[in-house]
Amino acid sequence: MKEKISLAMARRIALAAQGFADPRPNGTPDRRHLARVLGRTGLLQIDSVSAVVRAHYMPLYSRLGPYPLALLDNAAVTRKRKVFEYWAHEASFLPVETYPLMRWRMERAERGEEMYNGLAKWGRERAAYIEDIFREVVERGPIAASALEGQKGSGGWWGWSDAKHAFEWLFWAGRITTASRRGFERLYDLPERVLPPAILALPVPSPEDAHRELLRISARAHGVATAGDLRDYFRLSPTDIKGRIEELVEAGDLLPVTVEGWSKPAYLHKNARFPRKIEARALLAPFDPVVFERARTERLFDFRYRIEIYTPAEKRQYGYYVLPFLLGERIVARIDLKADRPAGVLRVHAAYAEPGAPPQTAAELFEELQLMQGWLGLERIEVTPAGDLGSALADIAAS
Length: 399
Prior knowledge:
Helix content: 25-40%
Largest sheet: 5 strands, mixed
Shape: globular
Structural class: alpha+beta
Strand content: 15-25%
Strand order of the largest sheet: 10-11-12-13-14
């Protein structure tokens, strides 16, 4: 086994671990393909911004190509569901088999130890009210927080109503879970009325065992990673992983390695693949596991990436909702994109090539945009010739 890995090989290992060494399916992707992606990524981060499509749909598209959105929607409902929602990297869809591994976080949250400080403080002050809301879920679930928005009290933290605070506290504590969504709004119910009985019957591991298993999942999803990368994937604390990585090394799950250009020690998953070549082509969501840890993205791809949604328009460098473009094993461009559904247009506001991007970048990117246009059911692509790649894309669009 190699003890020193080149940066190029580390990129290929990481991309293979995330499923980019596999060709996209020829036919319509199905539940088997969904399971394969989830088995590699371990989670799909959820985000409310729908400038193109909501973020949790994108990693499947990036790896599988056009697929029916109902594939993920259906996996998140009914007692035969394949995923559930909880706090992992951030709010995420997770394979239902992961549910017992998150019980330690739920139990800590119920004690006010593993949630946002403002929500924990609010929960301590409003314990009786939280129990009132819980009884509403017991009696009326599935139910949305908006169904009780009239119970507003003083409002407060994050501008949420009291009811929304209580629902979120109960969700963190694992006392309620997402039964389904109406648009993007959660409908909450009791776990025992939502999750498959076989999952609820699984033994709950100790926190230490859960942390070890979450690190194994993280290592498999990374391929090769620093301790910080491994910890961040499920937002584990330094205390949570103290001694755990060393145990996984001793068990043979992780292999210590040195990666060219990395200042910190790295760990290779025991089943990591070493592909000679990656032939991927994909637009990546800002919350794709390949790029959601920005320091790792910079180390692997020499690609500095920040999301500018909350940056005032006049101060943005690249645009509002910018997607990296992966070609082969490199991120070669970034594109500010919007799906204008009322007009039926996929709008390219700007596009920028990375240093050293190959000559075919614009042509490959436009082909990927055409694929996305069809997937989203839009009628055409319109390109504003902004950014150093914008004119080339506009010329292709006009030809």
